[in-house]
Amino acid sequence: MDELKAKAREMYVTEGASIDSISKVLTGVSRRTLFDWKAKERWDSQRAAWLNRGRSMEDKLWDLAYSFADSALAEPDPQMAYALGSIITGIANIKKINKTEDEELAGNAGAEAKKGISPENLKQILQLLGINS
C-alpha cells in the first residue's frame, strides 16, 4: 500500500493529476482513501510548493546576479562577467520553464512563444551590467 500511496502522491503533486484520474489509474485504491491521504499529508500545499519551485529559484538567482553585478562594478573581472552572464542565462531558462508549465496548466501547450528579450528584461540586464541606456 505504501507504493500505491507514493505513486498517488507523485501523480497528484508533481504530475498535476486529479484524484478522479488517479483512482482510475491506480486500481485497488478508492477515491475516499485518496482524499484521506491528500488531506492527511497535505498534498495541496506540496503541489503548490512544487509548482512554485522555479519562481523561488528565480528570486535566488536575481539576488545572486545583483551581488555579482555589484562586485563586478567594484572590481571588474572577466570571470565575474562570465558568471553573471551564466546567471542571467539561468534566469531566462527558468522563465521559459515556468511559462511552459503555466501554459500546460492552462491548456495552452501549443501557444506560440515570443522570441527575443523583452524591453523590460533588456533594461534590467543593462542595469545589472551598469550600462546606462
Produce the secondary structure layout:
Blueprint: H1 2-13, H2 19-25, H3 31-40, H4 43-51, H5 53-74, H6 78-106, H7 119-129
Keywords:
single chain, 133 residues, mainly alpha, 7 helices
Structure, described:
By secondary structure, the chain is mainly α. The chain folds into two domains: 49 residues, no CATH class; 77 residues. It is 75% helix and 0% strand. The chain has seven helices and no strands. Helix 5 runs antiparallel to helix 6. The longest helix is centred in the C-terminal third of the chain and has 29 residues.
Specify the helix fraction band.
over 70%
Q: If you average the pLDDT, what whole number results?
A: 83
Work out the helix count: 7
Shape: elongated
Largest sheet: none
Query: What's the helix-strand series?
Result: HHHHHHH
Contiguous low-pLDDT stretches (5 residues minimum) are none
Could you say which structural class the secondary elements and strand pairing correspond to?
mainly alpha
| Percent strand | under 5%
Question: What count of domains describes the coordinates?
Answer: 2
User: Distance N terminus to C terminus?
Assistant: 61 Å
Briefly, what is this?
This protein is an all-alpha fold. The protein contains 7 helices and no strands.
